[in-house]
Specification:
single chain; alpha+beta; five-stranded antiparallel sheet; 2 helices
Amino acid sequence: MWIRLLVLSVLLSLAGCYLIGRDFPTVPIEELRPNVTTKSQVYGAFGEPVEKGSDSGLETWSYYYYMWTVTGVQNQKRLHVTFNQNGTLRNYSYSAQ
């Protein structure tokens, strides 16, 4: 009986984990420089973005990773970058919990 309860508890805990996005390294964020860092450098540091878009005619890339468990959000981080017309970084925002 106790073994069944233990197995059930473990299965429910594992089933309660939900991921969105893709994990990415955070150390390269310190190296991002507006008007200097290029698209290829951002791609080399963080890989393929989860989303690509446009904001006022400027290309944007988003990287994000959210992990929820039955107890709530356990890990989240988001990097949003905007590029100038010439392909250099215009600005970025990063948040993590």
